[in-house]
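DM from R.C. (forwarded with permission)

"hey, sorry to bug you on a friday — could you get me a structure for this? deadline for the figure draft is monday and I only need the backbone to look sensible"
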Amino acid sequence: MDKRINELELHYMHQEKTIQELNEIVSRQELAIEFLKREINAMKEQSLRMAPSEARDPDQEKPPHY
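My reply, with the result:
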């Protein structure tokens, strides 16, 4: 009986360690995603500042056959 309890405790400890590691990974990924979102927004703003005349309205464009 003690052997089974010890095995269960070891299994539980391993699961707790795995959960903690996965939590850390998810936290780092969340930070990376937020960073990338900010970078994309900054690049969009920079692109619009560099070439505002190139921002075309799709309704104003001529069809390709013209």
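R.C.: lifesaver. The CA atoms of residues 58 and 64 lie 12 Å apart.
me: no worries. The two ends are 85 Å apart (CA to CA).
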